[in-house]
Amino acid sequence: MTGINRAMSHYQDDNEFEDWGPSKSQLKRDAEALQKMGEEIVSLSQSELDKIPLDEELAEAVELGRKLKPKKDESFRRHLQFIGRLMRSRDIAPIEEALSIIKNRHATVNARLHRLEQWRERLINDGDSALNELMAQFHELDRQKLRQLIRNANKERELNKPPAAYREIYQYLRGEIEDLL
Where would one find the signal peptide in this protein (predicted)? Predict the structure, then answer.
C-alpha cells in the first residue's frame, strides 16, 4: 500500500459510523431545558406543587429555591442549575406530565372565562337575538333577570356610569354556566 492509500484507508476507518452520543451543544440545550423546568416548578403555587411527583431530595431543592426566589439574584440562578442537575438523573416524564396538566388547566379556565366575556358583550350589543341564542343553549338561565341586567348595562353605558350591571351579567353567567362551556 502506498502512503496515500494508507492515509485514505485510515481516513475511512475514522469516519465509520460511530455513535458518539449527543453533541456538546445538545447536552447544553438539554441542561437548560431541565433548568427552565426547575424554574417553572419553583414558581408554582403550593397547591400546584403538591401535584408534582418529586422525590425527597428534589422536593427539598425546590423548597429551598422557593425561599431564594429573587429572580435577579445569582444564588437563585445557581440553585436552578443545581435543580437541573438533580433532574438529569431522574425520570422526568411524570414531572413533565404533571406540569402539562397544570398548564392546560390554566389555559382551559382562561378560555372559559373568555367565552363568558364574549357572551356578555354579545348580550349587551345584540340584545334579544343573542339572548335567544344563549337561552337555546342553556335552558336553566333566568331570561327576565338577564333582560333586566342587559337593560341596566346599556343605561350605564349611555349615562357613563360605573359598569355595575355589566359586571353582574358576567358574574351571573359565570355562576350559572361556566362549567357547561
Answer: none
User: Is residue 151 pLDDT above 90, yes or no?
Assistant: yes
15 pLDDT more than 90: no
Claim: this prediction has a pTM higher than 0.90: no
pLDDT at 5 > cutoff 80: no
**pLDDT score recorded for residue 57:** 93
**Cell numbers standing for residue 5:** 492509500
